[in-house]
Amino acid sequence: MASKPFISAHDVAERAGVSRSAVSRTFTPGASVSAETRRRVLQAAEELGYHVNQLARGLMRRESGIVCLIVSDAATPYRSALLRELTIHLQNAGKVVMLINTDRSDDSVGNALRQAIRYQAEASIILSGLPDKSITQLCLKNGQRMVLINRDDDQPGPLRINLKDEEAGRRVALVFERAGCRTVAFANSEAGTPSLMARERGFVSAAKALGMEVCVERFGWTGYEAGKVLAHRLLTRAIRPEAVFCATDLLACGFMDAARLEFGLSVPEQLCLVGFDDIEQAAWESYKLTTFAQPLQAIANAAVSWLCDPQETDNLLHVSRLLLEPDLIWRRSVRGG
Amino acid sequence: MASKPFISAHDVAERAGVSRSAVSRTFTPGASVSAETRRRVLQAAEELGYHVNQLARGLMRRESGIVCLIVSDAATPYRSALLRELTIHLQNAGKVVMLINTDRSDDSVGNALRQAIRYQAEASIILSGLPDKSITQLCLKNGQRMVLINRDDDQPGPLRINLKDEEAGRRVALVFERAGCRTVAFANSEAGTPSLMARERGFVSAAKALGMEVCVERFGWTGYEAGKVLAHRLLTRAIRPEAVFCATDLLACGFMDAARLEFGLSVPEQLCLVGFDDIEQAAWESYKLTTFAQPLQAIANAAVSWLCDPQETDNLLHVSRLLLEPDLIWRRSVRGG
DNA sequence: TTGTAGGCGTTATCAC
DNA sequence: GTGATAACGCCTACAA
């Protein structure tokens, strides 16, 4: 019994007294099987505990049903929320998700993609890092679709989903002006990813255009602790900013905590704060952070429907790009509103 | 070219001027190939962009390399942290993770396991819900190993990893006594999972034994909002508890926010609070929550090493159980310490 | 060390 | 509608 623990279609066919093909057809949606055969096959399968072997099926059909999710820092609130949304959409589309954790290096993304190829993944969705051009080409050549979320890359082939980060930055400048702030700041991480930099760019240029005093500070990765450090740097300046736009909610939470608890500043009376991502904690009573909501549903929906529907092949050769708009969620970290 | 986008070992063999088996051996660790053949194969493979097809390899070797992670509410801080740890350990062990999101129902877990079988997963790790006995048997019969984390189940076969929840509850009662609290409470969710109930049991019995006034409130799922509701219920009682043990950090955060911001209570002076999980937010300045740290590393390590090393088969027939001890992390939500 | 032959479990094709 | 037969891409004896 230990020698043959796997039940194959052959076994089912034998028990049901039909041919292997009949079994196969029974489990192939839209194949023609008589009701009687079907019934007998199903019963035999049930009794034997038979399940179709997707590895073998994928081999034949040349479609594995596997979609790779490539991500680093997956335990972060924003990332895990996006991951959840993607996973759910993918499952609803009948796909199965293979999760690959990378560190922040680009070649670890390359390794992840290589694994995706080995497992004949139908598509890869990349949430962190940026693969080498040659790898991307390799994936495409292997018939794999690719989706890049919040990555900047202008190679043709992958679908790129981005947010209007620069515009968001501009909007915040306006919001601060309406709140009566004249000297403002941008708190960024050193990660230097395109979306982070775009927010900075939009904010700084708009603030300057509005005649505000604006400064920028960058430190560490985009986490809570970095936010505290950024607060120390910005709030000890000769002229203290009245409002700061944090590149990320996590930064904003750290910033707010330091501002209140260590500098005794009250938000929003003495300091206006805006974040980005709308992580769950942004809505917590201690923060009530005004922030931009990532359109997670829209992102997941776009990604999944794009890679599922077999669109025209020539379409694939073009650069496909989707630009989504984040919603500004008003809470209580900015005056007025 | 669109007709044959896949490069097979056959193509590589042709280009390298060797047989298909030589190619196969080159990519099989520990097979005997001459250095020269190996070199030529590797070169041809590189030029062609060949990658071993794991689906086909898995079919032959009867080992897919796939391990399923079955989880609901994966975006929650504790769950995502555990997920990350497991994923990393699994990857380091050369496995590839298949992520399956379930809702909280047990039959959705069953479906997930069925999928695991279809993909010939070598093992499944279950973080939420509890599969039906028959499904578990089916998995085991299909040669699949199973790990249940923080689930209660006494079927033989799966490895069960649990925490000493009841003991943790008892420890908290002692901590509260040392802080000079006489009337205490346990804030729980209605989920009623074994680990949550064990914490409650341990705490309540120990508190009673210490002669304390103890009450219990249960509401909703184990999230931030539920914590706020629980605070409302417990803090409006005729005799207000001086200390409460929350079943979860998320509950504790909600509880603390409501206590401070809506009831004007100061923690820990007027109210002592202890949580469970040690999620990242528990360390944030606004909370500084005294809590139990889940031994995530130990859990992941135990799970992965158990399902990777080919231990004796008869061992599998016994109930394997691992009982881990959570560390109490002292922060500032309890007096004394 | 190397090549040949057979099989893993499935589906697609084609006669019946 | 049904059953043989030939793939799919790979691995593993076995013989050379």
TrEMBL record, chains A, B:
The record's annotation in CDD domains points to: HTH_LacI (cd01392), PBP1_LacI-like (cd06278)
Is Transcription a UniProt keyword of this protein? yes
Q: Which GO terms describe its molecular function?
A: DNA-binding transcription factor activity; transcription cis-regulatory region binding
Q: What's the domain of life for this entry?
A: Bacteria
Domain (HTH lacI-type) ranges: 7-61
Q: Print the keywords alphabetically.
A: DNA-binding, Repressor, Transcription, Transcription regulation
Indicate what this protein is called per its UniProt record: LacI family transcriptional regulator
- Please tell me the species this chain comes from: Rhizobium oryziradicis
Upper lineage: Bacteria, Pseudomonadati, Pseudomonadota, Alphaproteobacteria, Hyphomicrobiales
